[in-house]
Amino acid sequence: MSKHKVIYDTDPGVDDAMALVFQALHPDIELLGLTSVFGNATIETTTRNARFLAGRFAPGVPVAQGAAAPLKRAAPEPLAWIHGDNGLGNIAIEASVEAALDSRPAHRFIIDTVRAHPGEVTLIAVGPLTNLALALADDPQIAPLVKQVVIMGGAFGTDAVLGNVTPAAEANILGDPDAADIVFGAPWPVAIVGLDVTQRTIMSHDYLASLRDRGGAAGQFVWDVSRHYEAFHEQSAQLKGIYVHDSSAVTYVLAPHLYTTRTGPVRVLTDGIAVGQTIQKPSTMPVPAPDWDNRPESTVCLDVDVAGMLALYERTICGTL
Ligand code: BDR
Ligand code: CA
């Protein structure tokens, strides 16, 4: 099987870092580049972190800096209480290993790379979707040249969960709702891995300790980077472990059979008290809905084989695939 050629659009971010290690170590993924975006921290911090992660785990993979703020709004405050003051759980970051920065802005890097590999590139986007929307604005013709876009973001009400930042909105979509609505409306295949499945997938304290003990340098890194994040989950959700957000998008690329899905166009509310809410019209729904009809269908994940997901991550980190 040929490898998945991936551009990883990311706002590192503790769980972003864990998903980068996963991609760097999995033999079926060829990382073509990392593109940074504001989100969990400022663009300066997420870009520095992306360069550190690439330099340490994916040497030679380029990093391009992306958007500092959403399309139409002010940049949000960094989420230091979740991801630490440095965005990576306050671990030490060695400047000496940081990858060089590509001279192009992220959206240009995406356009050029997609055009260099027509029909082959998978975009894994795990932060606000601003870079993808800017790429579409600059070169709308790239959409049909992209193999697939897999997004961690949104929530569709399974288990009555619609958000994690407000009662109605998930962080990445709320980060730039205008961009998200553009991305879901473009003619490229989109799969959405939202809170419906990422909050069902939990890496327990013992699971993470096992990675530390059996996963060599990568396992030790995953443990170290997740200490602050685990403490946040314990305080905020009384959880003895962490939700698996961004690595779930990677898993969808590698093993889509682990997810139960539903197809249909997705819209994002861009104002009002429910700004950032994601709403799908299932393709089986017969009634007319002009705001959804004639938009492309997205694939939304509704359920997950949790044990299968956790086993895939563990085997990748521990080198036992
Ligand atoms: C998403 O928001 C960010 O804080 C995480 O990195 C993840 O991408 C979860 O809602
Ligand atoms: Ca993220």
TrEMBL record:
<feature type="domain" description="Inosine/uridine-preferring nucleoside hydrolase">
    <location>
        <begin position="6"/>
        <end position="309"/>
    </location>
</feature>
<protein>
    <submittedName>
        <fullName>Nucleoside hydrolase</fullName>
    </submittedName>
</protein>
<keyword id="KW-0326">Glycosidase</keyword>
<dbReference type="InterPro" id="IPR036452">
    <property type="entry name" value="Ribo_hydro-like"/>
</dbReference>
<dbReference type="GO" id="GO:0008477">
    <property type="term" value="F:purine nucleosidase activity"/>
</dbReference>
<keyword id="KW-0378">Hydrolase</keyword>
<dbReference type="InterPro" id="IPR001910">
    <property type="entry name" value="Inosine/uridine_hydrolase_dom"/>
</dbReference>
<dbReference type="GO" id="GO:0005829">
    <property type="term" value="C:cytosol"/>
</dbReference>
<dbReference type="InterPro" id="IPR023186">
    <property type="entry name" value="IUNH"/>
</dbReference>
<dbReference type="Pfam" id="PF01156">
    <property type="entry name" value="IU_nuc_hydro"/>
</dbReference>
<dbReference type="GO" id="GO:0006152">
    <property type="term" value="P:purine nucleoside catabolic process"/>
</dbReference>
